Amino acid sequence: MSDNENQTTEIQNLIAELSKLGYFYLKDDRLDEAEEKFSKILTYDNQNTYALVGLGDVARKKGNFKDAVEYYKLCLEHHEENNYALFGLADSYKALKMYKEAIEIWEKYLVNDDKNVTVLTRIADAYKKVKNFDKSHEVYLKALEIEPNNLYALIGLGYLNFDFKNYKEALDYWEKALEQQQQADEENIKILTALGNCHRKLKTFHEGLKYFRMALDIEGDNFYALFGMADCFRGIKDHKKSLEYWEKILESDPHNKVILTRAGDACRNLANYEKAQFYYNKALNVGFDTYAVLGLAMINKIQGNFDEAISSLLKLIKNDADNPRLYLEVAECYTLVKKKDQAIQLLTEYTRRGNRNIYISEMLIKLKKDK
Q1: Which residue from 274, 272, 277, 237 is spatially nearest to 261, judged by alpha carbons?
Q2: Which of 130, 132, 241, 308 would suit a FRET pair with 290, their CA atoms being 20 to 30 Å apart?
Q3: Nearest 5°: CA angle at 350, between 264 and 306?
């Protein structure tokens, strides 16, 4: 063997050793050491596939996605079908929110590996990001054809159906996903709260409570689980328990305007008007809130302060002219102070603008009949 051949063999052996060490360090998250080994390979072979992909993987793990893109693209210039570079490039584009570019690269990947469920679910996710929901649905289903219990496809289809208000279908997919995780002895708060939210939307509140409790057993201060518990108790009109959970949220988020208003509503429904006013006013100190003002007006109405209630509600109507509840409340206040004509006029104005609401129509008919 010639000296040149010996030297070439030595370099090849050295590159193989450096590559082996680089990927060992990469797997062990010793990223700087991995980067050093891969960079050294390039001093001997500047087109080395393993080194370029390795450097791309290091950059991706470090969160330097633009650098990762450059390394993967450089590799693909010389080895255009390298699946590791294609996968890494697509994942980097996804991290950079360049979803169309990510889809294009993943589609190239599938040319040589069209049964790769991991890639299929990533493509489906990306299609969802670019709002191509039909294609996203199609690709998720393709993934399930290959792997019927794939967790990511089940979860993805759950969210897709939930977004389109197909709550029963979403429940079906998420229940299957939860079953997979329970079999693997894993816990997923997101799936539990998602299932709870489906039941909230379907108004099957007792079922929702079950899932939110399971989530709180895992993480006792989880905002979404606490919110879900409070809202489900609100749905079954257990205002005392509802208030308990609204107040738990407020312990860690005392200036949350929505939660303050909900706590005020719970107190109002419990006839604790002083505490309700406290929460409504606290919400309004954070910023204007229609429901806080409405809540205060409702208390005034209950306490017989009809003029104050009417004044507040009419101000709200100026900002929210198509909200039927506001008109109903004002009209009821007018009738209580014997001003039926003004009630009729207000409700008529609502319908003249092209608004339609069955409760307003019924009230209008009744007021005209009783006049």
Answers
A1: 277
A2: 241
A3: 45
